[in-house]
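The authors assume throughout that readers already know how a fold can be written as discrete tokens. In essence, backbone conformation is discretised, so a fold becomes a row of integers matching the chain in length. A single example would do more here than another paragraph of explanation. For illustration, here is how one protein appears when written out as sequence plus structure tokens:

…
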Amino acid sequence: MRKFALSASTFLLAAQLATAQIKLPSPSPGATVTQTVGTTDFTINYSRPSLKGRTPFTDAFVPTGKIWRTGANAATAFTTSTDVMINGKTLPAGSYAILSIPDKNDWTLIFSSNKSVTEQTYKPEEDVLRVQLKPTTGGEKVETFTIGFSDLTEASTKLNILWDDVKVSADLKVDVEANAAANVDKAVADKPDDAAVLQAAANYNLSKGRNLDQALGWIDKSVSMGENFRNLYIKSQILAKMGKYAEALPLAQKALSLGQSSNDSVFPFFKEGIEKSIADYTANLPAVPTIKGKGKKKS
């Protein structure tokens, strides 16, 4: 009898181990949502329960006024590659668990430093950020719990949580220019002798009117590694923006000549711009003073 009991236990354990290695359907399947805003990448990993005839945010199902993991199964994870403002409050770059406290008139959205937190292990002291959100109801019914992004601009988006006819949204904003400038500075620091990186960095500063002396140093180094119509044209534009039209003009003329003799398929897209710049630089050159002749008039 003992031998049979041992065999049965061994069989049950083997069956459990086998099941653990088999991918089976989940009642709340996992999902990953990614969104880029400017130079910032947002990623959300969460599980998606369905209503199946139930009504959420009631005493019977996902009670109001209590901590909720904002999904099912493991904690919902939120990652941002840069600092982000959420409803006017700063969340530093990093990965967090998203929790919430749903209520009829007010939701609390919580970003926790404990990425494996549950309703049972939640500790307020692990909160990194809390924001208050106003829910709306009466919209289109959503059967399966959904988190996503909408209203995308270069520097902002909305983070939306939808289930049943309830919707809550948070405003996310990033500092695009500061992040891009930091990326440029880091790229040059990482590859200080890469002509293409120096050219791109100088062009970024030029486009933003940012630190033109620095941009000129970068493009000078790029040009010293090999002249082409692109880096010469960028240098001419930097000099022109600094008011040095007499120095900018011959560089733009040389850029036009190099471009016309090159087989670069991109040059035709630049040609008109370079020709216009040459005309503008010429128009901005100081007028040559007229020297009047000396001596007496002949009678």
Observations:
- Confidence is low (pLDDT under 50) at residues 1-6.
- Residues 160 and 286 are 58 Å apart (CA to CA).
